[in-house]
């Protein structure tokens, strides 16, 4: 039983290393690219033409950002199996995963909010453009 437990621990550590590599890549992209691009989208232009251009650029960014969010979420799903294990060593890995999960969740939420804000702003400008 002890041998089986150790084998399971080793398998989980190997799985964690794979997931951690994925998360390091996702985390690096979020910090170095994603957050900067979201900040750029805070100030939307005053003309409909410029706003439509910003929306087009955001959609291109959104495709890439959504892919990173998806990859991060898939990696988290793989680690859900850890909930069934009570090894002491697993808790330190779980703490690292929680940090990655929090970062990913925050970014994905900001991405969703920005997507909604851009869409609503374009609709509002289009409405005012029709009213004129």
UniProtKB/TrEMBL annotation:
Assigned keywords, A-Z: Coiled coil
Taxonomy, superkingdom: Eukaryota
Coiled-coil stretches: 90-117
Gene: Plekhg4
Lineage of origin: Eukaryota, Metazoa, Chordata, Craniata, Vertebrata
Annotated organism of origin: Pomatostomus ruficeps (Chestnut-crowned babbler)
InterPro entries: Rho_GEF_signaling-related
Record protein name field: PKHG4 protein
